[in-house]
Amino acid sequence: MSAALRQTGENFSARYQGLAPRLPGPPDLRRRAAAWFDRHGLPDTRDESWRFTSLRPLAGIVFSRAEDQDDTAPSLLARLPPTEAPLLVFAQGRMRADLSRFPAGGQAGLSVASFANEPSFGNVPESETEPLSALNTMLAEDGARIAVAPSADAGTLVLLHLASGHAEHPPAFHPRHQIRLGAGARLTLIEIALGTSVYLHNPLTEVVLAEQAELLHLRLQDESAAAFHLASLHVALGPGSAYESVALVRGARIARSELTAAIVGEGARFALHAAQILGGEQLADITTVVRHLAPGASSRQSIRNVLTERAHGVFQGRIAVDRIAQKTDGYQMNKALLLSEEAQINSKPELEIFADDVKCSHGATVGALDPNQLFYLQSRGVPKAEARAILVAAFLGETLEAIPHSWGRSVLEGAVQSWWKDRPL
Amino acid sequence: MALLEIRGLAAEVEGKPILRGVDLSLPEGEVHAIMGPNGSGKSTLAYVLAGREGYSVNAGSVRFDGEDLLAMDPEARAAVGLFLAFQYPVELPGVGNANFLRTALNAVRRARAEPEIDAMKFLKEARAALKRLSMSEEMLKRNVNVGFSGGEKKRNEIFQMALLRPRLAILDETDSGLDIDALKIVANGVNALRGEKFSALVITHYQRLLDHIVPDKVHVLSEGRIVRSGGPELALSLEESGYAGLVAEAAA
Asked: Which of A325, A380, A395, B126 has its CA at 20 to 30 Å from residue A261's CA atom?
């Protein structure tokens, strides 16, 4: 590791030392996370799971604790397309009741609290190998605690993450979110991350679905192009529960989205449809681990990458099928469309199967736009740039068109469309 | 001056000369057939006129309504009124046929400084065109050419032509692989547009299509040149004697 990157890591450790007495919640877990982080620091490309994703651009940056001064949250909030849905707003990693909006008397079946007031680290396993989780555990100060009562259909909740960065003194924040659905509960959670200038957003989100619960989780990562987004998401699926996520990644200088799913209940369904649309010097990495720990469950992962200029996309996906997880149906596909000579994609599928009666498949494709398709469109009068946009939209269409929530779909589709405006092809 | 004036056109693909000096004049309102054996350069001529990449023009000129056609991008050629019905129509997975057609129609209208048409009006026109062509409305809901049979793809080309109303249609072996019913639909689609403001180049290997689209003139292309031109009767005599005699004649 470069000395400068080690220094960036050491700054986080020092910040923990200074803050420790004032940090909320039980100190033991934080202490162990900090000890781990002290020894390992930020990951570098010699770590197997970070081979393709270099954090070198973080080297030498001294991130500071996020303060509330210079608050641009209200102006960022204005970027959100209008919605009637309940809105829970975080700015600089802190819950902002003043910007949030709930119906009078609350949303039936839904309860919302903050980590700052009711700190709990949940049941995320203390993994030895996940530096992003350790960093979060060490420094988390606030977060959302969202719960849906058993059998309740809580409708839609929009969870907005706003960030005001700073070029010379970039802030870092490490929110700790928890989403729990009781047995048979339902929720559509739409998460949107927006920001300006340089900052580090290091959220950790724990999702726990009890028996027969269903969560539709739509995500738009639209961080500032100069920001760093290092996120981890842990999902636990109970019997017969369903987790379905559609995620669009288009922001940040470096983005790493780790997702681990523990399918502990029989017959649960897990689905991730993700798209990364990247340009410039952007690097975005989706790393997933799906553990089938119960029989008769299915997991679907479908990733699309559209990469232009010198952008770099990474997908690492592991499906681990335990000995008892018979009749598992696992599927994983990573497709990349490279729109420039310098764009690159790394794809690393891993299957670890210990049960003998399972169906698991994975695949990856890489290609450019088809000149025959382009010519066909042009021959019908469609200008070349528009023809390219149509073909890219078609490539992403499968991911976005199926979103069973019209406002959520319009937000994600709008994010794809506006991407072209800054990027004449 | 003719709508389309091709003079001494020579073109090559990957360094291999295919067209070796094509001369052809197509007056506005006429339908001409181009016949010829395999490898004579028929499809190359169609692609060069439509502006496909990978074909380099070494000599000659093409004027469309007096303008230099070869200097235009493919989309500009479509905007001035040129339409190529592909021999092998391209599949566009994820692109709906209705959206595709409306986008194309509005792109052409924009280029001609005409107002765009809205979705409702477009659907009305599209349905009317489908009805005229005895095609199913279901065509609009499907992805462009995806999962279409060979005949459906060719009919979709004719449907696009009917909506875009070109001044010059080039039909590149649109008859190949069609049964007689589909052939009649294609022919009806072309005949319905015939008039003072519509011209067509019908490229075909067989005389069959020309029973249904009777051309004003027939040209025989062989080894990259027009070796014979005549009336519709030339197609009939070719059907009897084959290309061999003509090709030998041209070589002599």
From this structure: A395
CA A78-A84-A90 angle, to 5 degrees, is: 50
Q: At what angle do helices A3-19 and A27-40 cross, to 10 degrees?
A: 160
* Fold category of B4-91+167-251 in CATH: Rossmann fold (3.40.50)
Q: Are A12 and A63 within 8 A, CB to CB?
A: yes
Partners of A386 on chain B (C-beta within 8 Å) are 103, 107
φ/ψ bin of A255: left (φ > 0), alpha (ψ from -120 to 50), beta (otherwise): beta
Give me the pLDDT at residue A340, please: 94
Write down the mean pLDDT value for chain A: 94
**Most confident of the following: A36-40, A105-109, A233-237, B187-191:** A233-237
Total number of domains constituting chain A = 2
A155 and A7 in a common domain: yes
Closest residue to B75, CB basis, from A370, A378, A393: A378
A265 and A163 in one domain?
Answer: yes
Per the CB < 8 A criterion, the answer to whether A10 and A1 are in contact is no
Of B236, B185, B181, B241, nearest in space to B211 by CA: B236
Q: Which residues of B touch A376 (CB under 8 A)?
A: 86, 89-90, 92
Range of the domain at A135: 3-369
A239 and A99 in a common domain:
yes
* pLDDT at A125 > cutoff 90: no
Same domain, A326 and A417: no
Contact A381 B90 (CB under 8 A): no
Q: Edge to edge, what strands does the sheet with A214-222 contain? A: A94-95, A87-91, A153-164, A186-196, A214-222, A242-249, A269-278, A298-307, A329-338, A359-367
